[in-house]
Amino acid sequence: TGRVRVSCEADAATVYVAVRGDGEVGVRIVAREPRDGRVRWWRELPEREAGALRSTGPVLVHRAGNRLTALRATTGAVAWERTLPGTWSLEAAGGCLLVADDLRFHALDPSSGRQLWARLRGPAPGGPVPGARPLHLVDGRNLYALDRDTGRGLWRFALGTPAGRLLVEGGTVYAAAHRPVQGGLVFALDARTGAVRWQRAVIRGEPAQGALELLGLRPEGLYVKAARGGRRGLLGRESGPFVAVLEPATGKPRRQWEHPGLGGGDALVIGDRLVLCAPALAGYDLP
Length: 287
Fold this sequence. Notes:
- The chain is mainly beta.
- It folds into two domains: 1-76, Thrombin, subunit H (Beta Barrel); 159-287, Lipocalin (Beta Barrel).
- 0% of the residues lie in helices and 55% in strands.
- It has strands spanning 4-10, 15-21, 27-32, 39-45, 52-56, 59-64, 67-72, 78-83, 89-93, 96-100, 104-108, 115-120, 134-139, 142-147, 153-158, 161-162, 167-169, 172-179, 183-190, 196-203, 212-218, 221-226, 231-232, 237-238, 242-246, 253-258, 267-270, 273-276, 282-285.
- Strands 16, 17, 18, 19 and 20 form a five-stranded antiparallel beta sheet that branches. A four-stranded antiparallel beta sheet has the order 1-2-3-4, with no helix packed on it.
């Protein structure tokens, strides 16, 4: 048997797992209960690469190459399919699917795949607008806020090298990034204006590739995964991979939980559980 590649995504009630064997055609998408791993449904897709999963509202979207397949979150039935030209990326934000090609951002309705609007990438934002509903995305080394209804740019913040996806909750945008000298940072920004509320270094002296990821926000803390550990102490010794729990209002560290499985695959926060996808799918009480 060859190597099996696994990636995970989750919403408030479900863990989605994409499984593909090296050299094989086809990806299996499995929806599981977060507490006990019970399978709700599964669906085979005839893709030649594992692709990426994005959960948004009523659908789970799988991207492979320039092909999108939306599955109904409750049953796994195919809701719609769409093929897009050129090179592009996919994110879910503000109840939209955001597709970026070389020139434009495109917002799609997740229920139907219908295009809502398209805007050129790059122009300077015009500033906050009263009554606007901002949606947030990372493009290159910048974090942008766009008007949910029109795509108009509202503000821009220079992150550095972004790490993982954003979390938006209670009028605050949380983002992780790497900057030279400063290391791996977590930022909290005002969702409407982009003003910095706080920033906190989680890893010092770590390479910029894939070390940090925001897992989830709960009343007791903001959960941040550090997949490669980092240097600490007077001798600069390396720690193992860990989850840091930060105070959401201030960024102050509350506690830290180390586990070797954090370095080998995806991790998800669902309800009161921390789910690790490697070396096997397993759930733990939140640290």
